[in-house]
Amino acid sequence: MKFIRISALWCSSCILTLPIWEEIKKEYPTFLFEELDYDMDETQVEKYQIGKIIPVIIILNEKNIEIGRIVGEKTKKEMVEYIEQLRSSI
Question: What is the pTM of this model?
């Protein structure tokens, strides 16, 4: 699986969830992780049609097809439960 986190420097929710994101990256070392900035990577971000709520984590399968997304400020528990739910369904 591949995770693409879209965030911005001005986003307080993005800043608050960054430590959780770093923990998740350590707990899932076999997954691929990418980070995009909402403003600086505008062309890449546009293709995901994320809207105005960030952070957004796009989850892709091995064929680079989106299988899920986490939108907004979530707890680590909520994120891990969602990731595990996706893992079990593929």
Answer: 0.91
